[in-house]
Design brief:
By secondary structure, the protein is mainly β. The chain is built from ten helices and 67 strands. Strand 5 and strand 6 form a beta hairpin. The radius of gyration is 47 Å and the shape is elongated.
Length: 897
Amino acid sequence: MNKKFLSAILFGALMVTSTGTFVSCKDYDDDIDEINKELTEIKSQIAALESAVNNGDYVTGVTPTADGKGMIFTFSKGSPVTVTLNVKDGEPGENAQKITFDEKTGEMLVDNKPTGIFPAKDAEKAPVKIEGGYWAVLNDKGEYDVTEIPVSGVTAVVTDGICTLTVFNADGTTTVVELPTTSSTITELEVVGYLDAKGDFTAFSDAASHDNKYEMGYSAFYTATKAPWEWVDADESQKVKGEIAAKTGVVSLAGQSLVIRVAPASADLSTVAMSLVNSKMDEAPITLGTPEAFKGLVTRAASANGLWAIPLSSKELTGLNALTDLTGKFGGEIEDDEFNIAFAVKTPNFLSNFNLAFNKVELDAVSASLNKKKLVEATQKGSTNIYESTSGTEDNAYVIVKQGTPNTFTFDVPTSVYKSQIIVDEYIAQNWGVVIDGNSFTVNKYNDKQTIPSFPVYFNYIQLTETGIKSVTQTVWVRMERTIKDQVVLDPVNHIIPAKAADDKFTVSLDKMFNEMTAEERVNWNKFAHDIVTVIKQVNPDGDDITVTGFDDDNIAYLTADNKPATSALNIAKLQFIPNHEWNQETYPFDKEYYIVSDFEDENGDVLSSVKIPLTVGIPALSTLLQKEQVVFGGTNNGTGVLNEMDYASDNNAVFYSLKYAFKNQLKDAFENKNAVKFIIDPQQKIEGNPVVDLAHMGTGEKRTGVNQAIVLDDKEKAYNTPINILIDGETTKYVGKYTWSDKEIKDNAFTIKIVSPIEQGIVEAASGDIIEVVATEDGTAKLTDADLTTKTYAKVEYNIFKDKFGDDTTTADLWTSPYMKGISFKSMNENTIKAIANEDIKPATKVEDTVTPGYVVLRPMNVAYEGTTEVEVKVTDVWGYAKTATVKVKVLAEKE
């Protein structure tokens, strides 16, 4: 809040009319001290006000002190500040004053009491001011008329969003302070919707098509003759009379209250006068009542979310042209090509957008309901305009009501209803604690809890018709529900559907409900408990909660404390819900909130007690079925799949990798119990400009069993050792054959994997780590064996490159022990030192009885007289056609003597 809102001004004593006080010289010093003391106190009080305003606070209320000698200013955030004078009883200025103006009539009020004075309105002039110690009020000529109301020692005038404090000091000076109120702080007003009689909110979510305005329906009514009515209770001890005067027009609105949003949200609108005005600043024939915090969301005095409900009531226009005047002020029926008058909400300091319009609808027949149950249609009483009906009887109540819960009468055509009134016999109202609030009533206590008799409620209203009014009285017999305990909310349940249908259930204890009952309540509960009704509901933020269907009595079980089926309501201790894989995900999605309500009823169907179980339903996270192997993915989403012998198909040497080897439990969890996960290659991915789906596909292999999801490389070169994007097909991937995961979860479980050969990605190097030294034999050749080389797979598993596996009854190895080996070749890189190496030079292992001679390759040096080093290329080829090529340095030594 800017400091400019507060100013303290000291005036001379010209404005003070109180009689001067003569003192002797003896008392003069004491009087000076008293004046100085009081000035110091006033300055301190003014400083407190200034501090509050400088801290962004504003006045929300002004009330006199208990002794009437000061004013208490309450603020929206800070502590109250009291401003008072030390005035002795009987002296002028002993009483503080608060000057305000009635928000509807404009009448000047002194300490909330009417004065019969109505100051004129002028945007440039204050409605009142001080002249000669008396209040002067603005007249229609723009001049001030002095009243006979004297100004007190401390006054507060609230007008146009500013609270003006005037203090007549003991030294004859006047201190004037201007303080901001709620009205002056408003920076935004927005009409967001309206409330009907039941308090249900209808949102203006989108502007109507007619000139970008929100629309509310209304009907106009005119009577040329007086239209009286009278409503009474059974013994006529209560009478409500009224009439619409002759030649009077009124309107009836679809909404009972406007809902507006204010900024700042902390602003308390309950003290702000408001009206509906058109662009010419002419007021609509509608009175805006005192704003109340929107109780649908907030119940505190100041609405924390800035939403307020403003009651609407019709003003009456009189005269022969009243109906035309009404329609002219509102506008008629809005056609597609027409526009209607736009209205804005106006406060003393702020104006909302002009985006509210009223659409005229024709008067129509009216049906009334109580708690959404339609009442028996009223019929005419003789030839009068009185219509009556009775719904239910004393022995058979028409509506059952809950203790402490509002019960609301509503209309199907609210625009055809002018006034309404609920009447309850005084005896009944007193003994049953009936409280009436508009079109709602609440029964707050039991008069007879054993028999709980019915009693009548009289709902009266004026229906507007084209030919006149109908005075309707509808008697409704209601009965209190035999409630022993309010609904108890149990701990929320997050039910994850298990893989087996037989395990798809959960149990909750009812101990909390019973523990909250007193001993007497439990005795009564045991006496009256008869039936149990359990329903499942989906929470619907936009309206009534939705009943979940598809379950019957077989899905609900009531158990004893030892988990046996309960034989009656008296031995129930637990409730068990058994979905049995019957939850309908399509109709009731997993991302919604649900709850289970079990009502324990007496034989009349009254709810004795009730439990509510907040419920969320879901399936295991997809990632729990697709748990990645650390050795494949290394804790990331980017894996490396190493080809293995289990996937090798010898007939076509297909490059085939089963994804089961990339996940824990070999994907069994993902495919058992009717689970199904379908992997697909990303159709958008390309490698060197080639779509990956043209280079690889998902398939199966001959030697595989179980999960049939594997990657097959069609192009063994381009698709090899390159990350391939693997997606999950959300449509065909199912949990227990019926439930699906969210798009996000499907997306989050995608991964990449590159397929590599264990040989090609392995190691071939000199065992010594540098130069292999081999000794020439007597025929001048040398042998290079497995012992001279280090050969390991990608997984660091050692293997022999020379054939080392013997068949039955053979002495020469014809296969490799390693399942990955397919072939081997050597190449001399310098044939001047080592001759070319032929395939015949590669020898397999042999054995004589139990003695095995390892395989080797024969090296033929050109000249061994001098030692030298030669590079030899070693090429190891696997069964898939991938080769590991390495160059080793070989030094052939002369045969030792």
